[in-house]
Amino acid sequence: MFELLAWVEGTALASFLRGAGVWTYGLINLAHILGIGSLFGAILILDLRLLGVWRTIPLAVIARPTVPLAAGGFLLAVSSGVLMISFNATEYYGNPFLYIKLPAIVFGLLNVIAVQQLPAWRAALAGFETDPVDRRLLAVAGGVSLTIWLTVITCGRMIGYW
Amino acid sequence: MQYRIATLMALALGLLLSFPAAAHHGWSAQDEEIEVSGVVETGVSLSGPHGTMQVRDGDGQLWDITLAPAPRTHRAGLREGTVPVGDEVTVHGQRSADADRHEIKVRRVTWNGQHFDVYPPRRS
């Protein structure tokens, strides 16, 4: 892990960013917050719907804006996050919150992949009525997703306080 | 259902607001300010979340100095290269609560008769 952090810190990009003015870190931090806002806002709506809130709105209708927003927000958050770490990556060596956050992100992505394989999800997106078993399955997926992303955000926020 | 969510959100907001202003980085520091004089070993860096520098005191101990966030430190007049490496400086601030760490969150840096107040003086 230390080698990886040292490598990130040693890249030409990191070195460029460190010399790019006193506001650079704050601006990248801003991009990170915009990414998180889009990602988590979209996920919150989608997952609450999966958990049974706003049941009168078809899942397909809710998924249309939230899924691409979450994906775009994720890409923005990841790219800005990597840049933020690169400024002084080795200082985060041994930071427990980082060590929980990174695998949690992987679990979050695995959950996305798993949900997209579910016949229940595909049927709901295609506009078919879901039966109670499907609904329960999707609710579990929504609950898992919310738990994972709340973990990621909590750990991310706490990294700087460690 | 909509009202229940609104109520929950209002409760959550109230909970958040009721926390004291401990919102910024939880730098757990010793309460009283200390003063350390020494030689600049690593000059001021204004990249990353906070400005930093390193000072070695007369006993040979190396101190990690954390300054204000970069724009604020810059505004206080303390810029990269302002204080040459090898020069004598005095820093005032709060030492990390962790006694094993020689780390100070600094309020004032004094060099060559000049004071750089990266944070305002404490009201006491």
Question: Would you give an account of this structure?
Answer:
The complex is a heterodimer of chains A (162) and B (124). By secondary structure, chain A is an all-alpha fold. Chain A has one domain (2-159). Helix content of chain A is 80%, strand content 0%. Chain A contains seven helices and no strands. In chain A, helix 3 runs antiparallel to helix 4 (59-87) and helix 3 packs antiparallel against helix 7 (132-159). The longest helix of chain A is centred in the middle third of the chain and has 29 residues, at 59-87. Chain B has helices at residues 2-18, 70-75, and strands spanning 34-45, 52-57, 62-66, 88-95, 103-111, 114-117. Chain B has a single domain (31-117), classed as Beta Barrel (OB fold (Dihydrolipoamide Acetyltransferase, E2P)). Chain B starts with a helix and ends in a 7-residue tail after the last strand. Chain B has 124 residues and is of the alpha+beta class. Chain B contains two helices and six strands; from the N terminus they run αβββαβββ. At the A-B interface, helix 3 of A face helix 2 of B.
Oligomer: heterodimer
The parts of chain B where pLDDT drops under 50 for at least 5 residues are 20-24
Number-wise, the strands of chain B total 6
Q: What is the overall number of helices of chain B?
A: 2
Q: What pattern of helices and strands is seen along the backbone of chain B?
A: HEEEHEEE
* Spatial order of the strands forming the largest sheet of chain B: 1-2-3-5-4
Give the DSSP E fraction of chain A (strand runs of 2 or more residues).
under 5%
The profile of the biggest β sheet of chain B is: 5 strands, mixed, barrel
- The fraction of residues assigned to DSSP E strands of chain B is 35-45%
Number of domains of chain B: 1
Report how far the terminal alpha carbons of chain A are from each other.
Answer: 18 Å
Mean pLDDT of chain A: 93
**C-alpha geometry of chain B:** elongated
CATH topology grouping of chain B: OB fold (Dihydrolipoamide Acetyltransferase, E2P)
Structural class of chain A, by secondary structure, is mainly alpha
